[in-house]
Design brief:
mainly alpha, 44% helix
């Protein structure tokens, strides 16, 4: 089992299909956009210490996804997985207080409601969002060299979230349902609302039956939790507890490989446990096991080969082809699908590629994404929540809510990719 993969840099698997020329960006080309992003964070910062109607009071300032006076609705609440991606470009001393404060807000809201909700609204506590809590904690611990006592207390809260929310077997958290694997859920037992817990609202992945599916991304995230708990145990020299968590991770890995891995197609697929068969939609969720370190070397190589199914002029499409719902009258719009690309998914894929040593592939994907973001900014003066990566000059496909500008996680991943692939010299 791969836990902390370190390999020699590998050559890109498709150098002819994706030529390496014109894959660099000069820092001067990015300066205006980065200055815009740096000045935009103050517009996204909110502080609500006390409950205000449905808005849940939190002790520290936090970031919202977007701030746009011309938009049809405003953001004032803290979002779970948005927050994880919004900190990725801010992991520095200047933003230390803000970042640790956001994490503290997430922990406070869990202590109060026994769930980190979709966002800090009382009416959103029936579901959560993809769990990145242990990764958030380790990013803070490693970046700011925080004391072990802090790590222990925060990871105890994460362990409570793991057991209470993600490994719950009955209401209000009936997520653990099949072969030790979990699903996205909603207390009201509504498929479409359970799909919003995935963050992919909406997507063709679940055929609007999210409660019937064991998602690849969720279970890869829970594998990451288990390995992070093992890491903490080893930091405190508790080998017995570390072995117990590693055993749990091994069992999840084996179940996922059995139910979700398709060796012929070289991808992981969501698993419909009700029908006892894999889903048919090829999506970037398949790359979460790469990010989490769950895949073995052969699976990693197959996944990298499969990138060609998603890679387009402007970056990675969320799924490999046009969703059927586009052609069905009255169907739910699926913005988490082809031809749209999203910043968090690019981050997951790029980090996964780096983890397994595919640095040139990571650089190619990151550079395409930077160029798509930069081109739109230079023409329109804004960043978007998502982009049309098939035709980058055209707007993205709309979802069930209006497309947003701003945009928190886009801005942050843009800055992070600039730090990792522009500011640093070529390896």
């Amino acid at each position: 089992m791969l836990r902390n993969t370190k390999t020699l840099a590998k050559l890109p698997l498709y150098p002819k299909l994706f030529p390496s020329h014109n894959q660099t960006l000069d820092a001067s080309e990015l300066a205006v956009a980065r200055d815009y992003i740096a000045s935009y964070w103050s517009k996204l910062e909110r502080y609500h210490a006390k409950d205000d109607g449905s808005l849940i009071g939190l002790p520290k300032p936090y970031l919202v996804p977007s701030s746009d006076d011309s938009a049809s609705f405003d953001y004032n609440e803290l979002y779970y997985w948005d927050s994880y991606f919004m900190i990725q470009g801010l992991l520095d001393e200047e933003h230390k207080q803000l970042i640790i404060g956001i994490l503290e807000d997430l922990l406070v809201i869990f202590k109060r409601f026994r769930i980190i909700p979709n966002a800090s609204r009382t009416y959103l506590t029936s579901r959560s969002q993809p769990p990145f809590l242990t990764s958030f904690i380790f990013d803070c611990y490693n970046t700011y060299k925080l004391p072990k006592k802090w790590l222990k207390s925060t990871m105890e809260a994460a362990e409570a979230e793991y057991h209470t929310v993600w490994m719950g077997t009955r209401k209000p958290n009936a997520r653990l349902v099949h072969h030790g694997l979990s699903r996205y859920y909603d207390f009201n037992y509504l498929n479409d609302i359970a799909e919003t817990e995935s963050g992919w609202d909406m997507t063709p992945r679940f055929s609007r039956k999210a409660l019937d599916y064991l998602p690849v991304d969720l279970n890869a995230l829970l594998y990451k939790y288990e390995m992070d708990f093992a890491k903490v145990a080893r930091i405190f020299d508790d080998r017995r507890v570390a072995a117990r968590w590693e055993h749990a991770a091994n069992l999840r890995q084996a179940a996922m490989n059995d139910l979700m891995w398709d060796n012929l197609r070289g991808l992981y697929f969501d698993y419909n446990y009700v029908k006892e068969k894999r889903g048919s939609v090829q999506s970037l969720a398949a790359f979460f096991p790469l990010w989490a370190g769950l895949a073995d070397e052969a699976q990693a190589k197959a996944l990298v080969k499969s990138l060609r199914r998603f890679e387009n002029k402007g970056g990675l499409a969320t799924t490999d082809s046009q969703p059927l719902s586009k052609y069905v009258g009255g169907a739910m719009p699926t913005q988490w699908a082809y031809p749209n690309g999203w910043a968090p998914l690019h981050f997951i894929v790029v980090e996964g590629l780096k983890r397994y040593g595919y640095h040139e592939d990571a650089r190619r994907i990151a550079t395409k994404w930077l160029k798509t973001n930069l081109s739109w900014f230079e023409k329109n003066g804004v960043f978007l929540e998502k982009y049309n990566v098939v035709n980058p000059d055209k707007p993205p496909i709309k979802g069930v809510y209006p497309s947003q500008t701003g945009f928190g996680w886009t801005n942050s991943i843009f800055e992070r990719f600039c730090q990792d692939f522009v500011d640093k010299p070529l390896a």
